[in-house]
Amino acid sequence: MNLNQAYRFCEEIIAANSKSFYKSFSMLPKENRKAVWAIYAFCRTVDDIVDEGAEPAAQLSLFKQEFQSFLNGDFDSMNPMWLALSDVFKNYDMDEEAYRSMITGQEMDLQQKRYQTVQDVLEYSYHVASSVGLMLLPVLAPGKTNILKEGAIALGYAMQITNILRDIDEDLEIGRLYLPSQLMEKHNLNLEDLRRKAVTPAFISVWEDMAEEAEYQYQKAFETINEYPVSSRIPVKGAGLVYREILTTIRKKDYNVFGQKHFVPDQSKQQILAYL
Predict the structure, then answer these.
(1) pLDDT-derived band of residue 265, with 50, 70 and 90 as boundaries?
(2) 172 pLDDT above the threshold of 80
(3) Helix 131-140, helix 230-252: angle, nearest 10
(4) What is the mean pLDDT of the chain?
(5) Confidence (pLDDT) at 257
(6) Do the beta carbons of residue 165 and residue 211 sit within 8 Å?
(7) Can you tell me the distance from the alpha carbon of 217 to that of 237, in angstroms, rounded to the nearest whole number?
(8) Which of 23, 105, 173, 258 sits in a 20 to 30 Å window from 140, CA-based?
(9) Which of 104-113's residues contact partners 24+ apart within 8 Å by CB, and which partners?
(10) What average pLDDT score do residues 76-87 get?
């Protein structure tokens, strides 16, 4: 296994699992692009342990130990993800804590099935999504982490809330619900309504309250977007705008997130990216 093969393996993972991100970040210069593929592979690996692993708690604990060994310079060089990531850590000033935060977020998915407040959801979103932005910052904007950190965290919040609003049905099927209990109580939305897959006025109210939070976080993220180098600015903004469009797509489908997963049509993606 050589380094080029390792990076190619990582690229195949993102190409297969996240077409929006792959399309946006393919616009990066080659070396930055490869680093993003490796970081994505790390995130996908830890995410798959929790969502698809036979014994997720034990496997996640083992992965956490593997990551600590990796930081100490001890890793399986035949594992393409670790091999590519070792090159990234060598070439960029990586934030180790961001990687640990991602693992913590996956642990939260094993331990906690409900969240009380919007703030609780944001805390969860920080670990599973904002952490990704903090991993990417040293690659996308070297030396500008302090200026861009708040915006990267906000973009993670926004994208994760968008995921939550798109994947309500899918999450319910595996026993998870990320809509805050307080918000559901406020609008008299109960769990049975969700299980009946009913798009009620109460459901729309809760959905829109969360969407408003996402829109606020997107706006906050875009405030500092011009601080990114030009080569990174377009991919980052493009990824954010395409993801935000998921909310519009769901509204156009009358909020029916049950029994289907909404994606931004290719034509809409092309229009968004054409105006960057």
Answers:
(1) confident
(2) yes
(3) 150
(4) 93
(5) 94
(6) yes
(7) 13
(8) 105
(9) 105/129, 105/131, 106/46, 106/47, 106/49, 106/50, 106/60, 107/60, 109/50, 109/176, 110/50, 110/56, 110/57, 110/60, 113/175, 113/176, 113/177
(10) 95
